[in-house]
Amino acid sequence: MKSKGKISLKALVAIVIIVVIVAAGVGAWLAWPKVQVPSSIKIGFPQSLTGPAAPLGQRMKIVVEAWVEKINNEGGIYVKEYGRKLPIELIVMDDMSSPDRHVELVTKMITEEDVIAIVALDFPTYAIPGAKVAEEYHVPCFLAGPCEIFMAAGPWNYSWIIFGSLHDLHSSYLAVVDKYRDQLNGKVAELCRDDEDGRVSREIFTNTFEHAGYEIAYADFYAPGTSDFTSIIAKLKEANCDVLYFNGLPDEFATFWRQCATLGYWPKMAIVQRAIHHIPWVEAVGDHLCLGVITYCWWHPKLPYPYNDWIEENILKKAPIELGYEAGYWVEPLIVLKDAIERAGTLDREAINKAIAETDIMGPTGRIKFDLETHTCKGPVTIAQWHIENGTWVLEPVWSQEPGIPTKPIIFPLPPPH
User: Fold this and answer.
1) pLDDT tens track for 295-317
2) How many C-beta atoms surround the C-beta of residue 181 within 10 A?
3) pLDDT tens by residue, 32-83
4) How much of the chain exceeds pLDDT 90, in percent?
5) Contact 189, 267 (CB under 8 A)
6) Nearest to 211 by CA among 193, 188, 231
7) Which are the contacts of 136, defined by CB distance < 8 A and separation ≥ 6?
8) Own/partner pairs for 391-397, CB < 8 Å, 24+ apart?
9) What is the dihedral angle through the alpha carbons of 413, 403, 167, 63, rounded to the nearest 10 degrees?
10) 376 CB neighbour count, 10 Å cutoff
């Protein structure tokens, strides 16, 4: 009879084998390389926070940081590879309104900060050179600005844009001008900054208005940084154009428009692109010289699409300064990135870029779905005009592609300078 308190040899061998197997498994598990979970999702945000483009860059920063805070307050972005949500870490750097500096910052963000994407909402003049760098490193990059300018600088593989179209914008300008066709002499003048935006815009504007029967009686480029427009204004007076189209930067327009007032050239309608869609830029011109000047607002909080109520209540109304009507476009790159990362399930740049290409969601400007040949997604256009209400500058929509946007009557003709 076997004694009850003793373990048989076979049982002892089995126990030893089990212990060895478990120990080996634990050792292998401990030796197996672990997945390193990052503390955040790094997104580069090179922006003009000083220099001529700073008033726009500072507004973009307010909007983008508010949206990042919204995402992070909701827990961040879910990344399947790590089985958890991660917060966004926005890497903000000042390009000082310099294309060369912008390129340096994008390179640094990619090579030193290891960002998974770049959101570069600067003027195309600054942002496109940086996007070329992102292309070289195969890093997804979002830009802002008219689609045609982005397309002209392509082709693109990793860069994307959600914005309005110059063709749509200039057709909208035409719709506004046509309202007063019988009160105009049919002559149009064009003065554009000699840069990518100015060249592309002038060609589209010319084709749009000539096709509609208007005479382009004066057309010219001016060099970036021009401060004396005397000779140009003399030619404008000689051409006697009732409609002026100006495309350039804020400080340059302020100088030009003040000189127009002094030298006696004042058209019946003035359409200004890039230079006056924020109150500080209008105030910099001085007096009431921008009253009645026509420009645009690419986005409007009354558009019947997702997030716009939130943007109006939590960003526009709470901001310490006037932000203008582009905020919907400024947050859409982050909306797309969040969606793409969650669908890709990883922070791998190639996988995220592939997911961006497959995007089909609704955003503040409507449906976001990219044209895979041009990497563009075109949004709506609203034409606006500077009015003064109770002593305050207000950019009032006066014409829109979207029927839901409330519009005000157009001031015509342009009030004479005081």
Assistant:
1) 998 888 888 899 999 999 999 99
2) 12
3) 456 799 999 999 999 999 998 898 899 999 999 999 999 999 999 999 999 9
4) 81
5) yes
6) 188
7) none
8) 393/279, 393/282, 393/283, 393/290, 395/277, 395/279, 395/295, 395/297, 395/324, 395/325, 397/297, 397/300
9) 90
10) 22
CB 327 within 8 A of CB 311: yes
Across-strand partners of 90?
A: 43
Q: Sign of the C-alpha dihedral, residues 338, 344, 347, 351?
A: negative
| Encoded tokens for 386 | 């500077």
**CB-based burial, 207-219: b 16+ in 10 Å, e otherwise:** ebbeeeebebbbe
